[in-house]
């Protein structure tokens, strides 16, 4: 008996792969296609819509979904702490990295200039597409559908922020403050491993501060960095003097 081909079971269409990663079956595929239409592509195709209107809607969807998730996950954090956490996960860089990990670059429709300039790897373009996709999901299935997709994509990143100090800083922010205070230098993060699949990536990162280090892992580089920062903060807590105790 011939074994089924793994390659044959993998959708060749980038949009189909992305739909599976999102966990949302679009009733109106045109919305998903529009979410990946960069303005440069629309300019070269008169009458075609770009993803800018969906991006506008998706920006609000991201803010609301993230605010709701953080509100639930951190019941003791004050407004300032929640705002700082939201800024970390809603930044263009964070959204762009998530989109890159999901293979959004392969689906972007770009004009000739953007294609030549590597627009498919540009984090700004990818972040715009992420917001546009979430806007498209909301139009296609309503807010609950968009919220479900957002949670599927970002729940682990939010969970990685669980070690929130009393001041409301994320583990990475808290480690930076502590490392500068104690050692006069910011922590350094090194990616030790990046494997898995586009739909199920895996990262291992090491955080180092003044010779002390700890590792963390997660489904995104940010989640792994946050886990490593939490582990290093815990290590510093076990030895409050850090390197100072050795001098």
Tell me what the structure shows.
The chain has two domains: 13-159, Ribonuclease III domain (Ribonuclease iii, N-terminal Endonuclease Domain, Chain A); 171-238, Double Stranded RNA Binding Domain, CATH 3.30.160. It is globular, with a radius of gyration of 20 Å. The chain starts with 5 loop residues before the first helix and ends in a 9-residue tail after the last helix. Strand 1 (188-197) and strand 2 (200-209) form a beta hairpin. Helix 5 crosses helix 6 (79-89) and helix 5 (52-73) crosses helix 10. Mean pLDDT is 84; it is low at 1-10 and 240-247. The chain contains twelve helices and three strands; from the N terminus they run αααααααααααβββα. With 247 residues, it is mainly alpha-helical. Strands 1-2-3 form a three-stranded antiparallel beta sheet. Helix content is 57%, strand content 11%. The chain has helices at residues 6-9, 14-22, 29-35, 39-43, 52-73, 79-89, 92-101, 112-116, 123-141, 143-159, 171-183, 221-238; strands at 188-197, 200-209, 212-218.
